[in-house]
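ingest -> validate -> predict -> emit
validate: passed (alphabet ok, no gaps, 119 aa)
predict: started
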Amino acid sequence: MLSWTLSKKRKGKPPIQKVLDETIYLKRPRRGAKLKEEVWQTGEGEVVRYSLAYVNPSLCGVDNGRVLGYDNSHSHHHRHFMGRQEAFEFAGYESLASRFYEEVHELWRKEDEDRRKGR
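emit:
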């Protein structure tokens, strides 16, 4: 796990650290796809910034191939799906990460089913 203090000054706020920066490159049958997870926390362990993404350019030709993603950039929590964005109710990072990985597994089940049916 990587950890470093952001160089960007946060006026009047405690410094934050990037505590997770992982990219998993997927193999067959999703060759070229990847899962990305980045998390920044305060010194007290509060998650203040995050980004979760399932990227597969063969499925999504927009949004840099991001099929599904969640982040809180632009000062609000939002979900990306196949090039569209929508706000969602943030109930904490742990539950969000669980929700993201459940959605990814559901997408994979559908992809596998479509592949078996020859679509």
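The chain has one helix and seven strands.
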